[in-house]
Design a protein that fits this description.
Length: 112
């Protein structure tokens, strides 16, 4: 019985100590017919501050919006590493590469 309680206690502590990791993906698609583009990203709602630990995609940088306001614009994905997003609602969108019709960005955030 004691061993079971100790095991449950250690498991619970390990779960509580694991930092939260979240990913969010954004896409931009340009119509071949005209210059209109489509931006797609599910809004990320943060209740606590998280830090960007990884950025991956087939794009020329990306931007982050809080509401309708662009708060970060990264020309190089690696420059975003370490950026902290405070509680709020965010979206991320990739910049299209020249002569490309589609781009995506995925950022990974970790609890600080």
């Amino acid at each position: 019985m004691k061993l079971a309680l100790i095991t449950v206690f250690i498991f619970t502590i390990s779960i509580l100590q694991n930092p939260e990791i979240i990913t969010v993906t954004g896409e931009q698609t340009k119509s071949k017919v005209d210059t209109n583009t489509s931006l797609v990203c599910k809004t990320l709602k943060l209740s606590k501050s998280l830090k960007i630990i990884k950025a991956e995609g087939n794009c020329d940088g990306f931007w982050i919006q809080k509401g309708n306001i662009t708060i970060h614009n990264f020309k190089k994905m690696e420059r975003s590493i370490g950026t902290v997003l405070k509680p709020g609602s965010y979206t991320v969108y990739p910049e299209l590469k020249p002569r490309h019709n589609k781009a995506s960005i995925t950022i990974t955030l970790k609890e600080i």
